[in-house]
């Protein structure tokens, strides 16, 4: 590659990264905090020991990053989410490196553009959760795997172990990324054994073969053992059982979120059909990658299937682990494969397809976070501060949303080491059962709830409250989208 071409590539890449950063920065603090983000901030603010001993099934690495980040920049909604913006932007760079090394320069640049404009990946980068960091580390782990497979140097091996271990300490779905890499490794081994030419077989098989690979995987496992030892206690707390079992219809419709995030639109459907067509084209045309006579081209396919199909099957048979936010990681191999399918076409078709796909993703990304409809807890807190008397107790439904409301209404309680005790002193009541509702004192209560939630438990709680209390005929507050809003009512006995 000439020096002039290298400089042009660097310039294009910098522009793509700038676009990625700006898209992720757009309207970053516009939505109020939601329960998972509130939990991230609450669990990260009291130090590494508290983080490690938490019963959260999500491993602790993101919370450790957030702890130091909050110490430097505070815990405003904007700042909480800004950390993920940087992780999400770095993901674009890592995706470029993986696609470039696995395929070529053009595929790398197009993959970077698609990753930069992906609505789902943008949404993940605008959440104070572990998703953006997990996606980044998964891509880096796969990149280092590709590098190690080509040349088993000590440095490459060390970086692969480091990124893979860090990935596991960020999100449990890292297991599926390692599964894809192992499937690919043994596919390459099996494929190379079938080659008649000994020279070709040596070129395909990694330097240390099965023994070296087993040693690397053992190292990753041993480094992850400290957290695995905590799993039995976490499972006993019941924090893993909140996801429902997916239906086949949900599994199919969720594939669309890999393209357009959580916004369902006509342009998203059309884009989904386009990407599906590109994947079919890539499978059928036996492109240059497959004509080399090796199994390298299967890596991203394994990653796509292991990150999406395997969790779905597990959720149907064993424990429910399938949800949009988790399987969104499959968007990374999906978009890289789509990039490869486009680059292998003739120049005119390649340019048209690239412009169509980038433009459609960019158009959908102009509506960040709109579909989440986060309850407007800040407005509800303002109303309560203005109208609620100091001695009037406050009921919150569902109970877990106490954390979201207290972030705005009672920041001292939110930051307290013993939040439950602080809530009790301030009159906050988190109702968990109808029995608890029947034991309420016969006095006025404020009720704050999120509408649009139709779980059986919430319905029973509301029925129990309405048996004993009259809801004020005047709605005190209704904010946000009507289907999922933070609402305040005054209850009288």
Q: How is this structure best described in words?
A:
The protein is mainly α. The protein folds into two domains: 3-372, no CATH class; 377-492, no CATH class. It is 66% helix and 5% strand. Strands 1, 2, 3, 4, 5 and 6 form a six-stranded mixed beta sheet that branches. The longest helix has 26 residues, at 77-102.
Q: Which sheet architecture does the biggest sheet show?
A: 6 strands, mixed
Terminus-to-terminus distance: 79 Å
Overall shape:
globular
User: What's the tally of helices?
Assistant: 26
Task: Tell me how many strands there are.
Answer: 6
Spans of at least 5 consecutive residues with low confidence: 200-206
Q: How much β-strand is present in the residues? A: under 5%
User: In which range does the helix fraction lie?
Assistant: 55-70%
**Mean pLDDT score, rounded?**
84
List the helices and strands and how they pair.
Blueprint: H1 3-25, H2 35-44, H3 48-52, H4 61-73, H5 77-102, H6 105-117, H7 119-125, H8 131-150, H9 154-168, H10 174-193, H11 198-204, H12 209-228, H13 231-236, H14 248-260, H15 266-284, H16 288-291, H17 299-317, H18 324-327, H19 331-343, H20 347-364, H21 377-387, E1 394-397, H22 402-409, H23 411-415, H24 419-426, E2 428-430, H25 434-438, E3 445-450, H26 456-468, E4 470-471, E5 477-478, E6 486-492
Parallel strand pairs: 1-2, 1-3
Antiparallel strand pairs: 3-6, 4-6, 5-6
Helix pairs in contact: 1-5, 1-6, 2-4, 5-6, 5-7, 5-8, 6-19, 6-20, 8-9, 8-10, 9-12, 10-11, 10-17, 14-15, 15-19, 15-20, 17-19, 21-22
Q: What are the key terms here?
A:
493 residues, mainly alpha, 6-stranded mixed sheet, 26 helices, 5% strand
């Amino acid at each position: 590659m000439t020096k002039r071409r290298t400089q042009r590539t660097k310039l294009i890449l910098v522009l793509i990264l700038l676009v990625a950063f700006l898209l992720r920065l757009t309207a970053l603090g516009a939505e109020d905090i939601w329960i998972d983000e509130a939990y991230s901030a609450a669990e990260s603010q009291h130090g590494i020991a508290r983080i490690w001993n938490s019963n959260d099934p999500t491993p602790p690495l993101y919370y450790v990053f957030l702890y130091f980040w909050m110490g430097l920049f505070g815990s405003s909604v904007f700042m909480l989410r800004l950390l993920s913006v940087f992780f999400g932007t770095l993901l674009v760079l890592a995706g470029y490196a993986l696609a470039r090394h696995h395929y070529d320069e053009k595929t790398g640049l197009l993959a970077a553009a698609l990753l930069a404009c992906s609505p789902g990946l943008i949404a993940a980068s605008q959440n104070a959760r572990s998703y953006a960091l997990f996606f980044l580390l998964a891509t880096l782990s796969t990149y280092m795997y590709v590098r190690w497979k080509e040349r088993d140097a000590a440095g490459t091996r060390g970086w692969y172990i480091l990124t893979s271990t860090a990935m596991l300490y960020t999100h449990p779905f890292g297991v599926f990324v390692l599964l894809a890499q192992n499937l690919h490794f043994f596919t390459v081994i099996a494929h190379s054994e079938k080659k008649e030419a000994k020279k070709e077989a040596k070129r395909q098989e990694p330097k240390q073969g099965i023994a070296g690979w087993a040693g690397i995987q053992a190292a990753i496992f041993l480094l992850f053992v400290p957290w695995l030892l905590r799993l039995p206690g976490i499972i006993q707390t019941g924090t893993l059982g909140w996801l429902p079992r997916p239906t086949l219809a949900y599994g199919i419709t969720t594939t669309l979120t890999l393209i357009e995030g959580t916004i369902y639109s006509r342009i998203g459907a059309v884009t989904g059909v386009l990407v599906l067509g590109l994947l079919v084209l890539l499978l059928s045309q036996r492109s240059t990658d497959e004509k080399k006579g090796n199994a390298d081209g299967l890596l991203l396919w394994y990653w796509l299937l292991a990150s999406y199909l395997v969790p779905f099957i597990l959720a149907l048979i064993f424990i429910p682990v399938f949800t949009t936010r988790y399987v969104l990681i499959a968007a990374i191999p999906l978009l890289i494969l789509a990039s490869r399918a486009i680059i292998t076409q003739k120049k005119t078709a390649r340019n048209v397809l690239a412009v169509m796909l980038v433009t459609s993703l960019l158009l959908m990304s102009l509506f960040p976070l709109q579909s989440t409809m986060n309850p407007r807890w800040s407005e509800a807190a303002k109303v309560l501060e203005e109208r609620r008397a100091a001695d009037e107790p406050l009921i919150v439904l569902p109970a877990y949303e106490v954390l979201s409301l207290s972030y705005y209404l009672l920041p001292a309680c939110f930051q307290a080491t013993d939040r439950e005790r602080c809530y009790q002193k301030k009159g906050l009541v988190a109702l968990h059962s109808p029995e608890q509702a029947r034991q309420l004192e016969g006095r006025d209560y404020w009720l704050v709830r999120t509408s649009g939630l139709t779980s059986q438990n919430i319905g029973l709680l509301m029925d129990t409250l309405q048996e004993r209390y009259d809801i004020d005929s005047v709605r005190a507050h209704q904010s946000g989208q009507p289907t999922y809003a933070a609402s305040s009512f005054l209850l009288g006995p």
